[in-house]
Amino acid sequence: xxxxxxxxxxxxxxxxxxxxxxxxxxxxxxxxxxxxxxxxxxxxxxxxxxxxxxxxxxxxxxxxxxxxxxxxxxxxxxxxxxxxxxxxxxxxxxxxxxxxxxxxxxxxxxxxxxxxxxxxxxxxxxxxxxxxxxxxxxxxxxxxxxxxxxxxxxxxxxxxxxxxxxxxxxxxxxxxxxxxxxxxxxxxxxxxxxxxxxxxxxxxxxxxxxxxxxxxxxxxxxxxxxxxxxxxxxxxxxxxxxxxxxxxxxxxxxxxxxxxxxxxxxxxxxxxxxxxxxxxxxxxxxxxxxxxxxxxx
Length: 297
Known about the structure:
Elements: E1 11-14, H1 23-32, E2 37-39, H2 45-53, E3 57-58, E4 60-62, H3 75-93, E5 99-102, H4 113-131, E6 140-144, H5 160-170, E7 175-179, H6 181-187, H7 191-198, E8 202-207, E9 209-212, H8 214-220, E10 235-236, E11 239-242, H9 251-260, E12 267-269, H10 280-294
Parallel strand pairs: 1-2, 1-12, 2-3, 4-5, 5-6, 6-7, 7-8, 8-12
Antiparallel strand pairs: 9-11, 10-11
């Protein structure tokens, strides 16, 4: 199986391409190309079982949406959302799912952020408590650092402040982060410093990068909508997501931090790159190119 040179971290892939809906073809591609795991999204339990039965390890699994319900202002709605997530975790846990991925949206984009965070702390604290005692070490929640869509950017834990607040607020040992440097770079947050702070609660890692487009940064800045915006898939005026190695991430430094901390998880390639996405052939090339880069860092 493919692993990083630094830290020997197993390399997997995240499902976000149409051709990945065929479980047999997906399993064949993963195994033939040395990918140790697949992150299947919030698949039905029978689909996750089929993937596991095909000989592919399960990486992170998405919690069922809508994720914003976990931070609902109404406690009854929060409890219903927690119960729904707990039922789902229990339904796929036996197939090897241990890390559950979620973007911690606030329930109302216009809500005061402090109030929204308090509701999220209540919801995620309850969820983490109920899945911590499962046999085999319990399940973990990995908060994804995507800030969410403009103009409100409603995800509550994407910056160091947000992640620190919700993790410390719940006090849950099984609440941590899905470390993805691509989001941090586009927000102007140093991913090296972030990982140094949060490595002990990094439960999963995404292999994705971001390129800052210097000429566009000069032309458009970072705040306003452009009069005639450039056409950039998986990005905005001055930045774009890329495969690992095609952006500004210091992968050697990050993998060294993970290795020194004894990181025991995986790094799954999340393919969002306009130079590869759009065709099955291109997307497979993108996954393989990402694997080859990470395996040599």
